[in-house]
Amino acid sequence: MSSYAFWNNKGGVGKSFLCFVAASEYAHRHPDTDVYVIDLCPQANVSEMLLGGYFTSPDGLHFLMSKTPRATVAGYLEARLNSPFRMVADISPYLCEPREFNQNIPENLRLVCGDNYLEIISEAIRQTSQLEIPYDSWKQVLTWGRDLTVALRSYSGDRDTIFFIDCSPTFAIYTQLALVAAENLVVPFIADYTSRLAIENVLAILYAITDPPYCAIRTNCFCKTREGRRSTCTKITYIR
Q: Which of 74, 116, 159, 203 has the fewest Cβ atoms surrounding its Cβ within 10 A?
């Protein structure tokens, strides 16, 4: 079992799209593996793409969120709030088959759908993690995402499994659940200054690297002197 979280502390870097492409392509190339996408972002962007995009996903999202219990990741977390320190017996009500809404998705790809309700229950999740009894309540709550992957692995039986987890840009409690559940972290970024700052935040939050060293960039410039001879000058730029 492998698991990948897609996260950067900045929106608009293609995180959800990369998660969508990676999961879909892996499912297409490995039909004997159950590919699970867990959408732990209230915006549910990767769920929208898997359910067919702009024209068909609103009906699909409404259908899943209207079920009792909600057939979404928020439905699973709400069930955990009702029994914080005991795993739910059956995770199938929170699972959906995107192919039922979008015929272009491989049959072996399954989705735990995103849900805007995730934002509403996030404070209750955070408060549950701060309970004084049991003494390890924080640890147990933070492993709710991992508990879900273990249950889904068991749900697949003898088939191989892989997990792709889409995260919100914020370091909210539901993002922490996602990062704890993942064995690997993918940090999408674009070549701009704010993306570099976001990567610094990732290093600081996850690895306590708060003062990255300065890097020197050497640039060679060529020009001609008044006498027509070629001259070379070197410029050293220091960046963090």
A: 159
Residue with tokens 């539901």: 174
Buried b / exposed e along 28-39 (16+ C-beta atoms within 10 A) = eeeeebbbbbbb
Question: Which amino acid belongs to residue 33?
Answer: T
Q: What per-residue confidence (pLDDT) applies to 54?
A: 86
Q: Let me know how many helices (H) and strands (E) the chain has, helices first.
A: 9, 7
CA distance 239 to 157: 51
DSSP 90-106: --GGG-B-GGGT-TTS-
Compute the distance between CA of residue 189 and CA of residue 198 in angstroms, rounded to an integer. Answer: 9
Compute φ and ψ for 100, nearest 5 degrees: -65, -20
CA-based diameter of the chain, in Å? 85
Taking the C-alpha atoms of residue 195 and residue 211, their distance in angstroms, rounded to an integer, is: 17
Pairwise CA distance, residues 165 & 37, whole Å: 6
Confidence (pLDDT) at 75: 98
Across the chain, the runs of DSSP E, i.e. the strands, are 2-6, 33-40, 109-112, 160-167, 184-186, 215-224, 230-239
Tell me the pTM.
0.86
Tokens 């439905």, residue located: 75
Structure tokens at 117: 């309700």
Q: What pLDDT is attached to residue 128?
A: 97
Closest listed residue to residue 72, CA positions, set 104, 28, 37, 105: 37
Residue 196: predicted pLDDT = 87
Distance (Å, rounded) from C-alpha 171 to C-alpha 226?
58
Q: Pick out the chain residues at pLDDT < 50.
A: 216, 236, 238
Long-range pairs, 27-30, Cβ under 8 A, ≥24: 27/105, 27/106, 27/108, 27/109, 28/106, 30/108, 30/160, 30/162
